[in-house]
Design brief:
S-adenosyl-L-methionine-dependent methyltransferases, Immunoglobulin-like, eight-stranded mixed β-sheet, 10 helices
Length: 822
């Protein structure tokens, strides 16, 4: 019997005695104000959603996690968010630390990457976390998070798992529908029983009043969740007695009922056309005014309506067609315009993609070429252009340990709008489960959800977000005096030294508080950056501090402690094959090292080129060292008496320089002066610190002709340490200058997939890879079709293929297929 339908039959008198209220936008100013503030809040704080698809749910140290990130606009689910940077962290649960951090470049809402699992990682439970910089303005509960298990070939599967922390007692919670119980009004109380590992437990029990009367009995409906009806009476308190699977019984007090107020009961099951909201109150007759009900989904108002407080029972009806698919929030405001009741509902519309995966035949031979036809259609079987990622894995090695695990569909429509972990989220989207919608409604009654609180929404002004929307990489920080006080406005120069030797130079100012930010940058991982700050004309007595460039603090609240638990022999083949493969790779590396030691290579030593020099060989070159800088006030002082044919006369700050033979009827013709290849005046040469000089070249006669008539008196070229392409800026401690190596975009690696239709030496090795193929960027055409080819391995086993993806308008889909290799 459907418990939800039974509940509403018990409340049938409520419907008969109520006043049916058509759900339309009311004329009162408060509903209009609610809609306006909701729109303003959503504009000030637009939401984003992130999902990360991986090739499998568990890995062995030494393997690679292949991943693809999806970025969605929060309200509309359009598959292209504003942010262009995606951060991915691998967290170890036991240590609560980030062990791997990646920065991925997102284009058109998609980002691809990988995480190579180093040998130093311990086996155990991990979490893959992903977020944008903008998402850091909101609670971490809304970051994407996914549990992963890491194994080691030198540690068995059973030993790899650690015991769950915390108490061994299960957690039992009770949730009055709408948020509160009210004396004299019948309502429903949902409950949830969860084990220490985060799994729902089957329980049963009963409720006793303080007078000792049995009020009702109850039992779980699905995954530890259920509900019961109760009508609290004045002067009574209530206690639930919960019986666990081991036979023990535990007592839990129910939330205290309010003496007066509102009750909200929602029927999202029995009517196909409308969502019905039953509102009752026991306010005294002297209380006048209107209550307000507003429905909103992902920050967008659906509709708002009002009812008179004097009407003690009202039914509000919302047409289902007005809601988008997914979670919506219903809020009841009392006559004083205060939120008093709230309830979530899930609207099922099946507005999702169907992904068909069809191998060219049901059975293949080892190492045979596999052709896979892909087609994507909508609910009307019309073709759809979609972007997909596909993983093909050895089903004998990669086991499906978690039934109804999270995927793109369940995350986008369910998990991303809920706090806490949802157990078996895929269950609620499988049409084969006849009770999935009633069970989903119970989930909405028990799962906490607070994208925002109304107190924040109803503010007239909103504080500025701390973290900006990132259209590219960001360098931000603060400039302070040595005493840590604010210096006021400061001129900044930023030099980004790309790995390909190209350089980007930017300039700007810090604000009155010394804060600065450089936005929209694009550079690769581990790039060297120099920031120079100057106050006034030439005051560099400043310190530069960069903001945390790594990741937010770890606070694991979304994912329960839920490592995959394996039987001793379940992964025997998987661990064996991984160990064999790693040993082969190690032997190949050793062989290469031996081979290199036995080969003698003879080649004429090449003089390293310096991009700052446009000429060939200098007439004379001085390599500056500490013995030369001692006592020298200027760069030209270091030339005195050190280079034959070069005469430096006069005082240190007003010298005359002459290269032998450089004179005419007007007198001495001084040489052309250059700093790092750029012609400068003699006065500029005198301002260069002797400690910054790396070398000095002297060009005489024909050597200087490349510079034309400007160098009729020869040339003196000064090369600084800072200008050298090999200069290590991390050793530079100049005042007002900060040099740092900052993380940039992770370079995209291609998944290695052997082609057995080509003869190669490495094909002689055995092939028992657990992931046979990973294709992160599959684009279907206007006909909704695409084709993919890869090769089977040596394993005679079923191969499981999973594809996930979305259309540009945000409709998600998941497709699966299995074929045999014999």
């Amino acid at each position: 019997m459907n418990l939800l339908s039974t509940s509403f039959r018990r409340l049938g008198w409520f419907v008969a005695a109520s006043v049916l209220l058509a759900f339309s936008l009311a004329d009162d100013t408060f509903p209009v104000y609610l809609v306006e503030r909701l729109q303003a809040f959503n504009t000030a704080y637009p939401k984003e959603k992130v999902y990360v698809q991986t090739d499998k749910p568990y890995y062995t140290v030494g393997e690679t996690i292949w991943l693809k990130g999806y970025l969605f606009d929060g309200p509309s689910h359009l598959a292209d968010s504003v942010s262009k940077v995606l951060y991915v962290d691998l967290l170890q649960i036991e240590s609560q630390k980030v062990v791997v951090h990646r920065i991925l470049k997102a284009e058109n809402g998609y980002a691809t990457g990988d995480i190579a699992l180093g040998d130093s990682l311990a086996s155990g439970a991990y979490v893959l976390r992903a977020y944008t910089g903008w998402m850091r303005n909101f609670p971490e509960e809304y970051f994407f998070s996914k549990p992963l298990t890491l194994l080691r070939t030198d540690v068995g599967p059973v030993q790899a798992m650690t015991t769950a922390p915390g108490s061994l007692q299960p957690d039992v919670q009770f949730f009055p529908e709408g948020g509160q119980l009210v004396n004299g009004i019948e309502g429903r109380v949902a409950f949830k029983t969860v084990s220490p590992a985060g799994k729902g437990l089957e329980t049963s029990g009963f409720v006793l009043s303080s007078a000792g009367d049995t009020v009702t009995g109850f039992s779980t409906k699905h995954l530890g969740m259920g509900y019961f009806s109760i009508k609290p009476e004045t002067g009574q308190t209530y206690t639930a007695f919960v019986k666990l699977g081991d036979g023990s019984t535990h007592q839990y007090p129910l939330p205290a009922a309010q003496p007066e107020g509102y009750m909200m009961v929602v029927d999202n099951i029995t009517n196909r056309e409308n969502v019905r909201i039953y509102v009752r109150n026991n306010k005294p007759a002297s209380v006048q005014g209107r209550f307000t009900v507003i429905a909103q989904s992902r920050g967008k108002a659906v509709q708002a309506a009002q009812g008179e407080v004097t009407k003690k029972a009202v039914v509000v009806q919302i047409p289902r067609q007005l809601f988008p698919e997914g979670i919506s929030q219903l809020t009841l405001f009392d006559e004083a315009n205060q939120p008093v009741c709230e309830r979530l509902v899930f609207i099922e519309k099946n507005n999702r993609l169907t992904i068909h995966l069809k191998p060219s035949k049901p059975t293949f031979s080892p190492r045979e070429k596999v052709e896979l036809n892909i087609s994507v259609t909508d609910e009307s079987e019309k073709p759809v252009r979609a972007n997909l990622a596909l993983a093909a894995t050895d089903a004998g090695q990669v086991l499906e340990k978690e039934p109804y695990a999270a995927d793109l569909v369940s995350h986008l429509l369910l998990n991303s709008d809920l706090k806490g972990s949802v157990e078996q989220p895929g269950y609620y989207f499988d049409p084969a489960n006849k009770e999935r919608l009633p069970d989903l409604d119970v989930l909405m009654m028990t799962q906490g959800w607070r994208r925002f609180v109304w107190k924040e929404v109803l503010q007239e002004t909103y504080p500025a977000p701390q973290h900006p929307i990132e259209q590219g990489l960001v360098l931000s920080g603060r400039v302070v005096r040595p005493n840590q006080k604010t210096p006021g406005k400061v001129t900044l120069t930023v030099l980004v030294m790309q790995p390909d030797s190209s350089r980007d130079i930017l300039s700007g100012e810090a604000d009155e508080n010394g804060r600065f930010g450089v936005y929209g940058l694009s550079f690769q991982d581990s790039t060297r950056v120099m920031i120079q700050a100057v106050m006034g004309k030439n005051n560099r007595n400043l310190e530069i501090q960069l903001d945390n460039l790594i990741n937010p603090a770890v606070k694991l609240t979304k994912i329960p402690y839920n490592p995959l638990v394996f039987q001793r022999d379940e992964l025997a083949d998987y661990l064996k094959h991984v160990k064999e493969y790693q040993e082969i790779e190690a032997q190949i590396r050793r062989n290469r090292e031996i081979l290199l030691k036995e080969v003698t290579i003879r080649k004429r030593r090449e003089v390293p080129t310096d991009s700052r020099k446009i000429y060939g060989q200098a007439s004379n070159t001085i390599k500056v060292d500490q013995t030369m800088t001692g006592g020298a006030m200027t760069v030209l002082d270091m030339l005195r008496g050190r280079v034959a044919g070069v005469n430096v006369s006069g005082s240190a700050m007003n010298p005359t320089v002459q290269i032998r033979g450089s004179a005419n009827f007007s007198g001495v013709v001084e040489p052309l002066f250059l700093i790092d290849g750029m012609p400068v005046s003699k006065e500029s040469i005198l301002t260069v610190s002797v400690y910054d000089v790396e070398s000095i070249d002297v060009l005489k006669g024909a050597s200087a002709t490349i510079f034309g008539s400007r160098a009729s008196g020869g040339a003196i070229a000064v090369y600084t340490k800072r200008g050298s392409p090999d200069y290590d800026y991390t050793k530079d401690k100049s005042p007002g200058t900060l040099v740092a190596v900052v993380p940039g975009y992770r370079a995209i690696r291609a998944f290695y997939a052997p082609r057995y239709d080509e003869t190669k030496p490495e094909h002689v090795r055995p092939d028992f890879r657990s992931t046979l193929h990973w294709a992160p960027m599959i684009q279907t055409g206007d006909d909704g079709k695409a084709q993919l080819t890869f090769f089977a391995s040596d394993a005679r086993t079923p191969v499981r293929v999973v594809a996930e993806g979305a259309s540009t308008d945000g409709r998600p889909g998941v497709g699966k297929a299995v074929f045999e290799v014999k």
